[in-house]
Amino acid sequence: AEMAAARLSGTENRLVSLPLSRIRVIMKSSPEVSSINQDALFLTAKATELFVQYLATYSYKHGRGKEKNALTYTDLSHTAEECETFQFLADILPKKILASKYLKMLEKEKRDGEVREDDDEGEEEEDEDE
């Protein structure tokens, strides 16, 4: 394993842009993972890199940043919201909203929550689906 690690570390800079040490830390943070094969580590890093490139390219091509020759956060969040492939990222890349609008939303949720306590539980489940 040490030979493989030494061999890989010499070429990793050319083959993958993401730091393997960081990828290893993230992988080890999962309770199901006890040991990480060097090849699995490299492939995970490479797949992550390709995914990020795909997300960025797609967002740039379909976003408004193209006009400014730049990729913007709005382009990324729009992709996460609109493209089915990337919808699992919607929580990670939420649409930007003004703090004042967010505070109003929280107030409304709080008021609705107080009203909802008196209602039947069936209606609560319907609200969660929205």
UniProtKB/TrEMBL annotation:
Location of region: Disordered: 109-130
One GO BP annotation of this record: chromatin remodeling
Domain Transcription factor CBF/NF-Y/archaeal histone, first and last residues per copy: 17-78
Keyword annotations from UniProtKB, A to Z: Acetylation, Coiled coil, DNA-binding, Nucleotidyltransferase, Nucleus, Phosphoprotein, Transferase
An example Gene Ontology molecular-function term: DNA binding
Cross-referenced Pfam families: CBFD_NFYB_HMF
Bias (Acidic residues): 115-130
SUPFAM superfamilies: Histone-fold
Localization in the cell: Nucleus
Gene Ontology terms: cellular component: CHRAC
InterPro entries (UniProt xref): CBFA_NFYB_domain (IPR003958), Histone-fold (IPR009072), Transcr_DNA_Rep_Reg (IPR050568)
Record note on quaternary structure: Heterodimer with POLE3; binds to DNA. Component of the CHRAC ISWI chromatin remodeling complex at least composed of SMARCA5/SNF2H, BAZ1A/ACF1, CHRAC1 and POLE3; the complex preferentially binds DNA through the CHRAC1-POLE3 heterodimer and possesses ATP-dependent nucleosome-remodeling activity. Within the complex, the heterodimer with POLE3 interacts with SMARCA5/SNF2H; the interaction is direct and enhances nucleosome sliding activity by the SMARCA5/SNF2H and BAZ1A/ACF1 interaction. Within the complex, the heterodimer with POLE3 interacts with BAZ1A/ACF1; the interactions are direct.
Main function: Forms a complex with DNA polymerase epsilon subunit POLE3 and binds naked DNA, which is then incorporated into chromatin, aided by the nucleosome remodeling activity of ISWI/SNF2H and ACF1. Does not enhance nucleosome sliding activity of the ACF-5 ISWI chromatin remodeling complex.
Name assigned to this protein: Chromatin accessibility complex protein 1
Taxonomic placement: Eukaryota, Metazoa, Chordata, Craniata, Vertebrata
